[in-house]
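Final report, Chapter 2: Outcomes

The project's central promise was a pipeline that accepts a single protein chain and returns its three-dimensional structure in a standardized token representation, suitable for archiving and comparison. That pipeline is now operational. To close this chapter, we reproduce one record exactly as it appears in the project archive, with the input sequence first and the structure output second.
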Amino acid sequence: MPRPIHACIHLDALGHNLARARRAAAGAKVWAVVKANAYGHGLTRVFSALRSADGFALLDLAEAETLRGLGWGGPILLLEGTFGADDLARCERLNLWHTVHDAAQINWLATRSKPRAHRVFAKLNTGMNRLGFAPEHYRAAWQRLAQLPAVGDVGHMTHFASADLAGGDADARELFARTVDALPGERTTCNSAALLRHAGNDAMLGDWVRPGIMLYGSSPTGAQPDARAWDLRPAMSLCTRIIGVQQLAAGASVGYGATFRAERAMRVGVAAVGYADGYPRHAPSGTPIIVDGVRTRLLGRVSMDMVTVDLDPVRAAGRAADVGSPVLCWGRHGGAELPIDDVAEAAGTVGYELMCALAPRVPVRVA
């Protein structure tokens, strides 16, 4: 039989989370952000659940080709824009929208002759200091774009550096409003965190919103209680089984480096999942995991193909806790739920990374 590990993508959760985003967006249109292969969920797998969005936003021309191949005829936005002048011909063929954040991209567009073939968003740097025109140069860049024969509508975009903190984007929002004041064009500013914090506020939301992580059921703040408070449902589950059991004496160690030693005599299970499957290698002892529907903890270091878990709480709950027992690494299974944000927090990372790290060797089911 095959190794007993698989991931499950929950289409009902994706649909629920998209509907949640649309409610928060009020009258704004919704870009469903599907970059990084839909945050590790698989672009082709999530398409049917997200196709009621107004558009899709991504990074990669190949992903845009995939969406067109799936029959999507609506808007597709390249969030980082083009990476070279040669990309523009494909943008025209695929009818893509794209972000313009640098003078080089304007220069490339100036070489195109097809009238009004490109619909773009000029990006303003409001403090993230990654991509975007500085506020003092923004209007000149926007006006140059608007004058190019190959460019049609020119909208306005920014990305808030501190939207995941309460009130953290206030200065950036004010800077954006002041900089684009009186310029025509649609506006898009809100990622998942900003959308949820400013839900229903038309003045804050603009014309388009860009939900990403919330579509996949993880909190943009990284705090699991926030995911539940915002009514987000996990869209990915990682499941495996116990493949071995050890009975440890008090003081015995577990795993590489003997980083965990048993405080008492205890029963330990070995689960078929490791960092080669995308489970975080840096997850420490104590990281939550569910066995037979009972929440327990990781013990010792994560190996390439295995982790070890404490079976005593499972036995105490009256469950078998033996070879073949089901293990939920994150997500939901059989009535049990373990938020991916809980695992990420214990491992000192964020749910985004765990989703995107799911390894190709893990079989994926769609439910």
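Archive annotation: The radius of gyration is 23 Å.
This record, like all others produced under the grant, will remain available to the consortium after the project formally closes.
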